[in-house]
Fold these 2 entries.
Entry 1:
Amino acid sequence: MPRKRPTINDVAQASGVSRGTVSRVLNGQANVSLAAELAVRRAVSETGYVVNRAARSLKTSRTGSIVMVLSEPQERLFEDPNFSVLMRVATNQLAERDMSLVLMIADDVGGRERVARYLRGGHADGILLISTHADDPLLEAIERSQVPAVACGAVLGRESVIPYAAADDRGGARQATEYLVDRGRRRIGMITGPLDTPGGSLRMEGFTSVLGRKVTKRMVVHGDYTQAGGERAMHRLLEAFPNLDAVFVASDLMAAGALQALHAAGRSVPGDVAVAGFDDSAIATATNPMLTTVRQPLDTIAEETVRLLIALLDEQDVQSVVLPTELIVRESA
Amino acid sequence: MPRKRPTINDVAQASGVSRGTVSRVLNGQANVSLAAELAVRRAVSETGYVVNRAARSLKTSRTGSIVMVLSEPQERLFEDPNFSVLMRVATNQLAERDMSLVLMIADDVGGRERVARYLRGGHADGILLISTHADDPLLEAIERSQVPAVACGAVLGRESVIPYAAADDRGGARQATEYLVDRGRRRIGMITGPLDTPGGSLRMEGFTSVLGRKVTKRMVVHGDYTQAGGERAMHRLLEAFPNLDAVFVASDLMAAGALQALHAAGRSVPGDVAVAGFDDSAIATATNPMLTTVRQPLDTIAEETVRLLIALLDEQDVQSVVLPTELIVRESA
DNA sequence: TTGAAAGCGCTAACAG
DNA sequence: CTGTTAGCGCTTTCAA
């Protein structure tokens, strides 16, 4: 017969002090005698006491949970290497503070409405945003909710209001582009991501900053971070810019699609066309040839993101961080 | 100045009824006059009232949250197509019942301990397990916690105690193997998953059930569901069984690794060796050649899993479900 | 340093 | 059908 869950009263009784003292021990407050503290700790482990969060939350009006809001459509999310890393890091770091991670998907009106209600209901102490687009309607609800938010990857246009940790997208793109140039490529095209994401616009900026005024409209096409989109984009690029000898693709997944398109068009890689990707995700070693790509320090990004949020919850001042990338040379360029 | 969040009292006042009646309306109970109900609904939207879950939870001792426990190591989880689908479906379905999804990672001692504490603390109304291994120490903690649990994919050895929804792994493996046989392949090897997972043992059973006593030890090697593992396994298989003309691989990711190994060994696919995968995950179309593979109805599996859990929470009787797979023929076999 | 006591906002049992 | 009421388990004054 499973006994009823012990409450703080049981602990108080077992340790011979009052509820108040137990609470003080539990919350690590100073004004407690060593004897009392020891007695309480013993009683806690004897009784198997675990704090009732609902009761605590009712009293403190803090919930002990953080929402991670996913506003990407499904396909992208799934392929997003940021995602799983961030999730793991966040879960672990938050657990250390006895907080938990609630997941919400907000890629349609209903989802956004739910998130807004959730925040309005005060059900979360903080918000973790991941690859959020510049014009996401959710951002307004988030601001209105007054709940502290941080982002993994900058939220374009809100860089100053939503602290973030991110890779140096511009620098990484520059690395890849310079590498292509150094290898003697002269007619370099690019497939970008959606321009309302940092990976979309900043990686394009990095690309054009290297090539300067040599970049023309026909050399750049826009993709959507999906593999099929990358394939289509590559076809378009080949049409607009048939004699290209290299392409920088803003994500590995799109690069995999581009590889297929090149293959279908009878171009050899890297012989005819060199291909460089971005992310260094799992797929980069699954393609043939394997992708030369730009690695982001995902672990660090994730850790920093969570660190920012925790600092924010503690009402400390926070500063966004941008982390360096690394070019990983494989076979495709 | 953001006003304090309205409580049920504010709604009661605004609608001219008592707290009790408001609560009844909110919880959809029958004994309420139409007039009262209307007044309450109006007051709710006027005041912007959102229920305080902590208070409700304190009273009802239900928490309104479900934990999704991930016990896979990182790499696998990330590549697991089940995962994102299940997450999305779960989030949506649960949101309809005003419940939320809490994520916990339990792939080491610390993680398991946290999950156990969380459950002991009564912080969750239900548990969603995903690709849990047979001997996972967490299972004991889960059973002890008495919290209703369901699994996405059977938990070997607990099929009768933890309801699940899953693809027909055995049948799918049979489909793939029969297809290879039908294409005239005679020397067929297999790379399995870990045998303490249903995808590991059942897919192997399907394979051997087709080939019967023709299967020998040297034709089967065991992988770990990673790409690198698939590559290693293929090398071992080529060593043990050099004249094979086909291989059935228990996951697409491992199949991608196998493709690399075959390529390195100078075997053409499907010319020298036909390759069939399992999952029909994103990577199946990213390889060259693209993978012939077995598709699992992930959406349905996820939906069914969540449906089972909800039924369990409602104290209905539940029955595990096994869903049919489909062979997707592409280029590799 | 500690105990006593007042609620946090809600639901459900009871009385009407 | 509806109002009243008694807590759920906890934190946090306030006194001592």
Entry 2:
Amino acid sequence: MSKLTLKPLSSSSNTSTDAPSSDSFSNEAISQRRQSALLEGLNPTQREAAEVIHGPVLILAGAGSGKTRVLTFRIAYMIEEGIAPWNILALTFTNKAAGEMQERIGKLVSEERARKIWTGTFHSLFARILRREADALGFSTSFSIYDADDSLSIIRAVMNGLGISQQNFQPTGIRAAISSAKNKMLSWQEYQRNAGSLFEKQTGLIYQEYEKRLQKNNAMDFDDLLLNMIRLFRTKPDVLERYQEQFRYIMIDEYQDTNKAQYEVVNMLARKYRNLCVVGDDAQSIYRWRGADIRNILDFERDYTDAKVVRLEQNYRSTKTILEAANSVINRNERQIKKALWTGNDDGAKIQLLRCRDDREEAELIVKTIKRSTKPLEAHAVLYRTNAQSQALEDALRRENVPYLIVGGVSFYKRKEVKDVLAYLRVIANPQDDENLLRIVNEPPRGLGKTSLEHLQNYAAQRNVTLYEAFRLADTVDVLQKRAQTSAHDFWSMLDRAKAGKDTLRPDELAKSLMVSCGLLKMYEDDGSEEAQDRWNNIQRVLSHLAEYCERNPDASLEQYLQETALISDLDEVKAGGKHVTLMTLHSAKGLEYPVVFIAGLERGLFPMSKSEMSQDEMEEERRLFYVGITRAEEQLYLSHAEKRYRFGELTYPTPSPFLAEIGAELVEHGSTSIQSRFSSGSSVNSAFSQLSQQSSRRVNAPATNNMDNFLRSAKQPAPKEPAPFEDLSNASDDYSQIPDDERKGTIKEGSRVQHEIFGEGTVVRMAGAGESAQVEVQFPSVGRKKLVLRFAKLRVL
DNA sequence: TTTCTCCACTTTTTT
DNA sequence: AGTGGAGAAA
């Protein structure tokens, strides 16, 4: 929420210079007066951006400059002006942003009218349109949408078919190459023509086969949702014209993160009426890696020479301190549109630097700080570079009983059992979908192994029928064993019975009965393990989610539900007003703001994330990401880094992020870390900070020359290349102080006899990992072999 | 043919 | 550290 407040309406008559002087009560005058009232709360520049609703407009909106506010007021203003809501198209970056915008507009005009505006992401909106126009493209309306995982498994299958080794060419790399080609609107033919290296040649072949596969499955991947729109508009001018008429006013948020294909569609749609308004900030472009083309925003003025350009440079969100830090960071980037972002807000508190011994302490410190905070829980957000970092934070929050919400991350929809349920439903909706059919054949196991499936696939290929059809005719496939024939046919008739109910049953009823008849629920029931229980629960969650959906949308079809779930990233979308801390990646934080923000893991290699070599461009993108993170904060910003961190299950000793040195030392002070309290000398925090931020390559064994060196040195852990297993067990964390000395001192190795509190005596069979995550496998006579985390197991060496 | 075990890969970020 | 795939054993 912007902190900008609306002035009271009553003041409108004497303060607004644009107020109509007429006393007439004609419709026009009334509506004009209401408009000025509507736009009253905007500053002159914002107002300009909102008022110019005809012709091309480029809004360069700095972070926190009230961009969303301008957009919502602009649309509300349009509606007040008499523009039909259904002629307005507003494309946002996430579904959530779209929903919020619609809600806010609803409060300004009426909910009823706001609902008629076309809002959504490029992908969700285009999926809707393509569903309607599928025929024209040779798809059926029930086409499936494949996510990145689905794509990957097809690519694997295709590579197997072509005999391309997955060792030499990583499927994920191929997928990225294909996706990037699609984002540049290169067909497989064009790609093959341009292919130079062996990798590109192979990718070209896979691309071709991949496309064939999707077509055959009546499926589109995420990129196709854009590409097929372009194809549709290019081949059917009448369809294009229909949508040009439909979307006479187009607005695009986060324009800096659009790619070439999106740019193309937008230009096609806007060509006729030219009422195109794009909003963006080149400094916040953080999706170049997935094809976003910064040129789209840089070239807008060239493409639309008559474009009105508005710069929003006043920041209403953050304190002077935070904004200054953000500016000093982003100014290190060479490639950017120079902007002068300023704020009238107070200086505010200094930025706190939290220096921690390890990731666990980092998490604890953050949680403690949140608990001490006078602000409500929901005022806090913790941001990090990689999803993996949420684990430690989550643990700490749970230990301290602090409610939290993780945005994104390991999405509910990515869970195996959830994907299985959706796969069943997709096959019912789209029987051509071989991919999803194969996914569910042996879930639960139906005695149809690799060989049987190969026979069926061959049969389908020879007769040029779908795999689904091959299952139906399984009895006539002589190469199949009798048992496999029956099994395959039974499987088919089970699915077909469900399919027959598609038009009579409500989608949720259909799903429920299908889950019973397919045996998936029973499989997890019979298993009885805790994990199976979880999975069973998750299936129930999907079913009740679907039931809820049907309640809300009584006329919705199964296809509609599947389409929406394919494009939603998380079932537990951020619910506004929840009483919880929010955790998310820096990428998902884009567009959000919080009074208190933590950015965790400011370490070289993690943030900025670096692979072997990093180009200037990549570095600048990381820096923009840091800029985005800083500017999420309204009042207080905490930056933290740890000196030990587990990555890939291994202990690493990272140095502080070079980004820290890019913030003026006078803006920062040390938060109370355990390190500081232990070594609190009279040292100046600022010099400590600047020393630290030089990410000194100083060796640990360098001679201490002064107090400062002492300070830095004693806080550092020795950084052996390969920490000996279990070696630092005794000093890894204060928690060990709870364990009596005699219990942890003894050296555990393979073959050791150990005593466990519950399991009794046993023999160590195997050991793995180091430090806190060290594990032992112990053979107990009573309960058999157990894998234990050494840290928790409280083993006594005998 | 299935199931188990081990191995390799993953983690950058997302519609 | 966890997951998914490939290969070997039952």
